[in-house]
CoA transferase
Amino acid sequence: MTPHISNPSALAGIRVLDISRILGGPFCGQVLGDHGADVLKIEPPQGDDTRTWGPPFRDGVASYYYGLNRNKRVQQLDFSTEAGRQRLLELMADADVLVENFKSGTMEKWGIGYAQLAERFPRLIWCRVSGFGSDGPLGGLPGYDAAVQAMSGLMSINGEAEGGPLRVGLPVVDMVTGLNAVIGVLLALQARQASGKGQLVEAALYDSGLSLLHPHAANWFMSGRTPQRTGNGHPNIYPYDTVDTATGPIFLAVGNDRQFAIFCRTIGMPELAEQDDYRSNEQRSVHRAALKVLLQERLAGADAQLLAEQLMASGVPAAAVLDVPQALTHPHTQHREMVVQMGDYQGLGAPVKLSRTPASYRHAPLTPGAGFLPQGEPGV
């Protein structure tokens, strides 16, 4: 996909100062940039830590960094120096949004914290990404994705029933925190339209991790029973699980009784939907172990991809389990413009599609920048 030449995107004209590192903050900045904001990323002299998080590397910079820093222009400043702090203040004067994730107290030590500068920059929206927030029993402590997965209960409900707690295989807490930061920034921009005033937006990994506990939290609030690991199975719905076939696993996402009846007809077992043990979702969930054995036996000779296509065409969600290369090269991935290419850079596309103000791709990672672009500059 070629980059967009103009920038009619939703956040065109919004200037973002991204002084964050690692994942949550930079991901927030990239999303804002994809939707048109002029994002200037400020890194310390040694660069963002994720430049070293590899392999793989290109020209000494890790792929991890490339995946989070598109649509930004980059410069380096040392905030521990007077010159670095003075330049930051100059940039703040022109910014609409600042995104940071410094350890609590660090910016205050340098005299450039939110409370110290809020009156000086009353329209500035200050977005703070942190591990646990700035106060409370854990306030100000550092937090990383996996540790918060452990603390928030996510690991306790992830993994096979007979296995131990398992980290989700991607930094889900960091990424959701980044998305929550985006939501907070957009809410604050909307509020500024009416009041003319900026505010502090706080997105904490801990809060975001807890927010992901549906339906396990809802189940515990109502029943008092500690949620358990169910492997690929859903705790409230069945069959919502993987089943092995001759060509690999298929995921069945049968969400209601009507879909189950269609599913049973499609696999040549219409009578299954009429049995008392499987007639309703409640009964299927109770008798899931026996039902899974029946489905394993029936589908042992099936082709996962063909069966998934048949079920989807009949209105039953299902999918063969793909690996990452298969997913990224799928024809529908290309159709949805979910892979972006600019020169030798490739990255994931913006998942939110706007009909009138679409996302735009203007700057590959590592594009240099000394300051914000002039207003109206398309950024090509």
